[in-house]
Design a protein that fits this description.
- There is one protein chain.
- By secondary structure, the chain is an all-alpha fold.
- Helix content is 72%, strand content 3%.
- It has a two-stranded antiparallel sheet with strand order 1-2.
- The protein is elongated.
- The mean pLDDT is 82.
Length: 139
């Protein structure tokens, strides 16, 4: 069983998946930082720079001004955090779209180059056989 597990884990697909998950996690952190530290403060200049504290109290008992304290007092509708997450998702989706688009463009260029490349001439023995065939066809 251990040997079978070793064969499974050493296959290329499993390793590729592991690398993809690790890079995806790191990429998610980069996007979170980009949204939270760069984009949201710029968008937030219309009001306050921190959308994460935007909320609507759903109970009269909630009197706090910060989301963390308000959640301790009762139910709140935390639309600022949701807005941040939606922007994060849209940005991540856009970046993935651009990456896929770039890869597809490169693939199309490579396929065009392969199609445009002249075919290599056949080897001498094959060329000789083609000539013999053509001579026999004339008779």
């Amino acid at each position: 069983m251990l040997k079978e597990f070793q064969e499974f884990i050493s296959k290329g697909n499993v390793m590729d998946l592991a690398v993809g998950v690790i890079i995806g996690g790191a990429f998610g952190l980069i996007v979170n930082s980009l949204v939270g530290d760069i984009i949201m403060p710029i968008v937030g200049m219309a009001g306050s720079a921190d959308f994460s504290n935007y909320f609507y109290p759903l109970s009269d008992a909630v009197t706090a001004t910060s989301l963390e304290e308000a959640k301790k007092q009762g139910p709140v509708f935390a639309y600022g955090n949701f807005f941040t997450v939606v922007i994060n998702f849209l940005l991540l989706a856009w970046i993935v779209f651009l990456m896929v688009k770039g890869v597809n463009t490169m693939r199309r260029k490579l396929e065009k180059q392969k199609a445009a490349a002249p075919a290599a001439p056949p080897p001498a023995d094959v060329q000789l056989l083609i000539e013999i065939r053509d001579l026999l066809a004339k008779k």
